[in-house]
Amino acid sequence: MKTVSVILKKEWDNFLGSERGVFAIYGVLVLSWSLLPLSKDLAAGPVWWLFFSVIISGNFAATVFVSERLNGSMEILLTSGFPRNAVLFGKVAFITLMSTAIGGLCFCFTLCWLHLSGRPHALYAGEVLMGAGLYCAGTVMNVACGAWMSIRLQSPRIIPFISILFMAAVVAAYYGLSYLVAAPQWTLIVVLVFAAAFFLYRAKKEFNGEKVVQPITL
Fold first, then answer.
1. pTM of the model
2. I want to staple 141 with a disulfide (CB 3.0 to 4.6 A). Which of 65, 75, 187, 196 is the partner?
3. Cα distances (angstroms) measured from residue 23 to each of 36, 37, 110
4. pLDDT per residue over 161-187, tens digit each?
């Protein structure tokens, strides 16, 4: 647990040391996305929040996993004496906590806009709460999938694009199922949680079996 907290602090310090433009981008994303539920033409409803989770958690995963693998600092971290599980779960916990915090801020703004617009709270607040559940489930799935793909893919830069395509495939499958049978939206949350557990298990297994220093053939 102590080593996980060290990894969390390291990632937090790195985040605070980011350029100011990074914080401005997150601010724009939060404000713009919080206004989407006000649109009556947004047919996707709460499912739209899944793609917000891809954007936010994908950006953090690109910094925490992808950038460190590209610049070689991941190898240094893995050979510094930290248990590999602590490194993996510390990074996963950091991305999940930060993405959830940003999503929570966005949902607070959304509830404020809905209150100021005079929309029926029982209807729209319920949709926002469902969106919050989908956002959290999508975030956990994106983080676990990103951690696994950062090990498997030789070009980790394409991870955000694959995450978006995978999420789009899940949403498309859900709507296809809803067309045939009445599938409640909470089934999406269940599917995403199971997918997150699978990807996290695969990431843990391959993270521990990853060879950092390749043998030299003479």
1. 0.82
2. 196
3. 21, 23, 19
4. 888 888 888 888 877 877 788 777 788
